[in-house]
Design goal:
With 456 residues, the protein is α+β, with helices and mostly antiparallel strands. Helix content is 39%, strand content 20%. It has helices spanning 7-17, 51-63, 94-105, 115-131, 136-146, 152-155, 158-167, 183-190, 214-225, 230-238, 246-251, 306-319, 361-370, 391-395, 412-418, 427-455, and strands at residues 25-26, 41-46, 66-71, 85-88, 109-112, 175-178, 195-199, 208-211, 257-261, 265-275, 278-290, 297-303, 323-332, 338-344, 385-387, 404-405. The protein has a seven-stranded mixed sheet with strand order 14-13-10-11-12-15-16, with helices on both faces. It has a five-stranded mixed sheet with strand order 1-4-3-2-5, with helices on both faces. Strands 6-9-7-8 form a four-stranded antiparallel sheet, with helices on both faces. The longest helix is centred in the last third of the chain and has 29 residues, at 427-455.
């Protein structure tokens, strides 16, 4: 039987170990790059310390937006000089955090950088629709940022999204929703091994498994369909500095799981910015190097793939989406057909790259929000190989030397934060370091005190 602790006890424990901030941090000396043009206000949210969240802030600011952020304590965003205002994102009262930041910033759009942030916006929209008639402006803001309420459930479900893609005539692997381990027996009669299992509510390859036998598939299903255990929650908290898993653990929620037929080929993805169902700009890439077989890309090659962009356009139009989203594909070996395997209903690592006409999502969003034409911008590189920073440096890649190294040299504090080694990024390391500094300081203090006594 799982151990259950009261939510108040968990909150007191986490509060005692997280080095947070208690109020918004504001950068006073913020200068506009577009004199005479009103700077659109963007509220960016992130619960997961994602590197590309900080890169997105830099890109949006350079394009002419005023960016404020709702993020976790000690987020890399605090290392940039581009954030206008910073607000604390509470893992226990996320909707309250959102409302406070929205009230303070009055943004033109909200840009979530993680799936959990998207979920919080969906929950806030539902909460306000059911319980309040005085927050119509916030409801409209969320729909302006993401799309209509009817699309929320679809973008949050891998199975529903792929079902919709099939209705649109897009290439999709055979997919089935799995509710029990016995469901694989019927699936085996229809689909040859290997199979790909995925659970909802996961990202970065964490909830993906490739099964090469029926027994392995059943074992993987047992692993990824069960609620988070206390051990995994503590690991996320202490190693990843991520307290947001505590609430799902307390609720004992079980994620939905799908199984897909395996497509032999190369992974690829695209990121787009859209507005009310129309794609404004986008970039397609094929993965050259990744952090493991199912992990996130570290080096990519920019490609002109009409099939990937057609998928993005059809899904955006069908769901009338706004804001950023990404699509993941497998490019089938031999046929080169792009098989859609999942959607990320938020910005992705490729979105901040400014690669010129039709590929500058920062400029496209600025133009949409400001009512100005999309400006012509110079691509940051003509090299089609892009090494994501710091992802490619953290895991290493043979393609680093031949790639455009996407390093934000103008933000040295951010670069230093990203290049910390793995132990230095963990909460336990920081707690231990602080303890050693306090001990050293105390030792010095007592030594001085003892010296003064001896002198007297």
């Amino acid at each position: 039987m799982p151990i259950a602790f009261p939510e108040e006890s968990c909150q007191r424990f986490i509060t005692s170990v997280i080095q947070g901030f208690t109020g918004p941090v504001e950068h006073k000396n913020f200068e506009s790059d577009n004199q005479g043009v009103v700077r659109p206000k963007v509220l960016l949210t992130d619960t997961d310390r994602r590197p590309y969240a900080a890169r997105l802030v830099l890109g949006l600011t350079e394009a002419g937006c005023e960016v404020s952020c709702l993020a976790t304590p000690n987020h890399p965003l605090l290392k940039t000089s581009a954030v206008r205002r910073m607000f604390p994102y509470s893992p226990f009262r996320p909707l309250g955090s959102l409302l406070k930041a929205i009230a303070a910033v009055a943004p033109d759009i909200i840009v979530p950088c993680c799936d959990r942030g998207v979920q919080h916006l969906h929950e806030l929209h539902t909460h306000l629709r059911e319980r309040s008639n005085s927050q119509r402006g916030v409801i409209d803001l969320i729909e302006r940022s993401l799309g209509p309420f009817e699309s929320f459930g679809i973008v949050s479900s891998r199975y529903d999204l792929l079902t919709l893609a099939q209705e649109e005539g897009l290439h999709v692997p055979q997919t089935r929703l799995i509710t029990t381990a016995d469901d694989f027996k019927a699936w085996k009669a229809e689909q040859p091994l290997p199979w790909v299992l995925k659970s909802d509510g996961t990202w970065g390859g964490r909830g993906v498994r490739v099964a090469y036998s029926l027994e392995q598939a059943q074992q993987f299903f047992s692993e990824i369909s069960r609620p988070f255990g206390l051990g995994r929650v503590m690991k996320r908290l202490c190693v990843n500095r991520d307290p947001f898993w505590v609430k799902p653990w307390l609720s004992r929620a079980k994620p939905a799981v799908i199984v897909q037929s395996h497509v032999e080929g190369r992974p690829a993805n695209c990121g787009v910015i859209c507005w009310q169902g129309k794609v404004l700009a986008g970039i397609g890439v094929e993965v050259v190097s990744a952090d493991g077989p199912t992990g996130p890309a570290t080096v990519v090659r920019v490609v002109d793939d009409p099939e990937m962009m057609k998928c993005a356009e059809r899904i955006a139009r069908r769901l009338r989406l706004s804001g950023f989203f990404g699509l993941d594909f497998m490019i089938e070996e031999g046929t080169r057909s792009a098989f859609l395997i999942e959607m990320n209903p938020r910005c992705t690592p490729v979105c901040h790259l400014r690669l010129g006409k039709g590929r500058d999502m920062m400029a496209a969003l600025w133009a949409q929000l400001s009512g100005q034409p999309i400006p012509e911008t110079t691509p940051v590189t003509d090299n089609d190989l892009i090494a994501y920073f710091p992802q490619a440096w953290n895991v290493g890649s043979e393609f680093l030397q031949s790639s455009f190294q996407d390093i934000p040299h103008e933000e040295p504090n951010l670069v230093r934060e990203f290049l910390q080694t793995w132990p230095e990024r963990t909460l336990l390391y920081r707690i231990a370091s602080d303890a050693l500094r306090i001990r050293s300081f105390a030792g010095t203090l007592f030594a001085r005190k003892g010296s003064n006594h001896s002198e007297s």
